[in-house]
Every structure is written in C-alpha cells, then in structure tokens.
Amino acid sequence: MGYQLELRHFSYFLAVAEELHFRKAAERLYISQPGLSRQIKQMEDILGVKLFIRDKRKVSLTAAGTYLKKEVDYIINHLEFTLKQTKLVQTGSLGEVRIGFLGSAMQSILPDLLIKANVQLPQIQFSLKELANSAQVEALEKDQLDLGFVRLSRVPENLQLKPVFTDTFSLVLPKEHVLNHMNFTGIEQVSTEHFILFSSDYSSQYYDKIMSICEDKGFTPVVTHRSVHALTIFKLVESGLGVAIIPTSLQKGFRMGVKFLEIPNISQRAVLYALWKKDNRNPALPPILDLL
C-alpha cells in the first residue's frame, strides 16, 4: 500500500478517541464525517490493527486503540512543547518550565523557588497551574507538566518524588469559638464537632492521614463537608458549619473570620513533595531541580 502515516492521522485519531463519536470529532476538526471515517480506516489499514469498535449505538476503543491513545497524547503534547521551546531558545532563553502545584505550595516553597530562579536563572520562563494531586500525576505522565508539587507518598515508577517541605497541622475554627491559643490542648477537644476536610479526591493518602490524627486521639470525626479548595473549607468554617484540619502554612494569605490553632502532641506531618518525570528531557528542568 502506498499510503504512509502522517501527523494528521494522529490528530484525527486522537479526536475520535477523545469524543468516541465520529460526528462530534468531525465537527471539532472542521471536516466531514465521511472524510474522517476514511482517514481512520486508512490509518487502521496502514497499521494493520483495529483501533475502534463501531456499532449503531456507540464507538469504543480496542485494546490497541487504548494503548495508542495514551502514547499519542504524549507525542502530541511533547511535539507542541518542543516547538514552543525551540522558539524560546532562539531568543536566548533556556526555555520554559511548566509547574503544577497545590494551593499550599504557593503558601510555602514555590514563591521562594521562583524568586531564586528569577535571580539565578533569568533565562528560564515559567507557566504555573494549580491542580489537584491526581491531575498533576496525569499531566506529568502526558508531558503536559515538567514539575509538580503534591502531597503523595506513592507515585508511578516513572516519576520521581523529593520531599521539599515538612509542615505541622493546625485546627481551623470560627473566630468566636471558645477554644484559643491559651486553652487548646489537643484535637480531642473538638471530637463532637462536625468536620470539614479536604476530599479524598485531593489525595486519599492525605485524607487518611487527617483521619489518623483524630483516631490516634480516640475518636472518628463526623465529616459533613469535603472540598479540594482551602478557600471553600475556610468559608464553611467561618459560616459555623464545622471545624477543619489543614497544613499550618496554608493559613497564610487568607483574611477571613476563622482562627488557626497548631495541633500539639501529634506525630503526623504534612509533607510537600516535588514530583517530576524521570526521563523528562526539558533542558530547563535540571537547574530548577538543583535549586530545590
């Protein structure tokens, strides 16, 4: 067969793999549906594999198609970023480092890192995106991020973890709560209160650690609200809907009707980790890792 795979084939494949609907994918690509179907059939013929299972009701990926989608995601993202980096290098820059982070990283280590980088490595540019733990892991694996800041102790083998900041935990209370710095002796004093916690979607390991703080003191907290955003948690506490447990550094930068009491006599610590892909080829990343 005289046909060869071209970049457009992969773009067409990815659109159908994401939409799992030929008409929607064709509209997204601004081509006709029959034309898209022909391109996908041509790609399958060239590869000699079936990528999609089609019937009258739905489109789904085959095992081969699922594998190819994951790899094409990486290839397309890496190609787009490589072209962008090439333009930056032409201007004398070392390139761009794409950083994902949790909100607490912006209250602790990230500003210091960026200040140091601006002084010592002014040729490097940055793009920043606040993302949950799981979203950062996925983006790193797809080559959409170079560096993440997460609260995870276990990650896929192709990623590298480095602890960069260890924090204590604090109790968040409404401003008018009876407990204060003078009479607060332990988390068991709020054992009958409702708790507002970071969702397990934020990090199941982190959620378990928060629960263990309470369970070590002899009670299981009644969790009535969960969120992945600190601001939402603080607003719920301010409204009198419960109390919360957070990394102590997360209190910085917020001015709300709440107060923070560091929790004494516990062994648990909130560890913030830097996370990157072991085979990351961005030449601007190693100098930033050195600053950590």
TrEMBL record:
Cellular component, GO, one term: protein-DNA complex
Molecular function per GO: DNA binding; DNA-binding transcription factor activity
Entry annotated with the keyword Transferase: no
Domain (HTH lysR-type) ranges: 5-62
Domain of life according to the entry: Bacteria
Gene3D superfamilies hit by this protein: Periplasmic binding protein-like II, Winged helix-like DNA-binding domain superfamily/Winged helix DNA-binding domain
Alphabetized UniProt keyword annotations: DNA-binding, Transcription, Transcription regulation
UniProt KW Zinc keyword: no
Pfam families referenced in this protein's UniProt entry, alphabetically: HTH_1, LysR_substrate
Alphabetical list of InterPro entries matching this protein: LysR_HTH_N (IPR000847), LysR_subst-bd (IPR005119), WH-like_DNA-bd_sf (IPR036388), WH_DNA-bd_sf (IPR036390)
Family under the similarity heading: Belongs to the LysR transcriptional regulatory family.
Protein name: Transcriptional regulator, LysR family
Species the sequence originates in: Pricia antarctica
